[in-house]
Amino acid sequence: MNITYSDTKTPTADQVIDLYDNAGLPRPTDDKERIQKMIEHSNLMISAWQGDVLVGLARSITDWVWACYLSDLAVREEFKKMGIGKALIERTQTRVGEQSMVLLLSVPSAMTYYPKIGFQKQESSFIINRKE
Fold first, then answer.
1. ∠34-38-40 over CA atoms, to 5°?
2. Residue 47's CB: how many other CB atoms inside 10 A?
3. In this structure, are residues 55 and 3 in contact, taking their beta carbons and an 8 Å threshold?
4. Which residues pair with 72 in a beta bridge?
5. Residues 84-94: tens digit of each pLDDT
6. What are the helix (H) ranges across 1-132?
7. Model-level pTM?
């Protein structure tokens, strides 16, 4: 299986919606305009492709020297357990460099996944949830 990775190829909103729905990522995929804004306002996206099919995406917001918020990590269901998610995170870490931490909020179903690939669970976070 030939998977290519890119930090310059920007997927379309339709490709991202298809990926998120397939991967079971709870995002507002019924709102294409909102997904498009999420893409436009991200300043680091690492994508995984099989040909023209988007099979994985790590979408982040970073200042490049202190913090990188990995806001979305998605891999198509039929491509899970192939190391794509881990590769996307490793490429994200490489791009932001050693001065920056990578942090994320996990969906409950992925809480056991992240420690397996090097993340440390933190108890020191807070959130004000969105209204929509």
1. 110
2. 23
3. yes
4. 59
5. 999 999 999 99
6. 13-23, 32-40, 84-96, 113-116
7. 0.89
